Automatic annotation (TrEMBL):
Its main location: cytoplasm. GO terms for molecular function: metal ion binding; phosphatase activity. Its cofactor is Zn(2+); Mg(2+). Its EC number is 3.1.3.-. The record marks 105 as: Contributes to substrate recognition. Belongs to the gmhB family. This is D,D-heptose 1,7-bisphosphate phosphatase. It comes from Mucilaginibacter gossypiicola.
Length: 163
């Protein structure tokens, strides 16, 4: 068995791109935040970077999987140009009012558990940075240390909380 990987999970809206008050429905409204240096630092410390995001707007029909993929490809590309590799995106396409309950919508830990299983991650050495209490709850439920930030707060401000 190879050594387990350590990871920093990242919420999307309010962490990697600007919080718009609700799901970002249109590509034009998708604004990438400048956390390039901070995430490069985490990458250099040996952390895999993974995204975990609720996308209930899919269940509501506000945007399509294709439009979501376009946003995520853009996010990956912009960070890549700054030397940061966002390894994978885990998203919950459900919404309780439209598709019923699921195991992946945060505060459930499903998205994190998917990432942990797929990449052989050690949760006890991993973190989840999010701008909602539900992100911290999902992290805790998955055995990952949650770090709560304000929406659009630079990640550089919490680097000292990550080993
Ligand atoms: Mg958020
Ligand atoms: Zn779900």
């Amino acid at each position: 068995m190879p050594d387990k990987v350590k990871a920093v999970f990242l919420d999307r809206d309010g962490v990697l791109n600007q919080e718009m008050g609700d799901y970002v429905r249109r590509f034009e409204d998708f604004h990438v935040l400048d956390n390039f240096d901070a995430l490069k630092t985490l990458q250099d410390r040996g952390y895999m970077l993974l995204i975990a995001t609720n996308q209930g707007g899919l269940a509501k029909g506000w945007y399509t999987e294709e439009e979501l993929a376009k946003m995520h490809n853009h996010l990956k590309q912009v960070y890549h140009e700054h030397g940061v590799e966002l390894t994978d995106f885990f998203y919950c396409p459900h919404h309780p009012n439209f598709t019923g309950d699921c195991d992946c919508r945060k505060p459930k830990p499903g998205l994190l558990l998917q990432g942990i299983a797929k990449y052989n991650i050690d949760p006890s050495k991993s973190y989840f940075i999010g701008d909602r209490e539900r992100d911290v709850e999902a992290g805790t439920a998955a055995g990952v240390k949650g770090i709560l930030i304000d929406s659009d707060q630079p990640i550089s401000t919490v680097l000292d909380q990550i080993a």
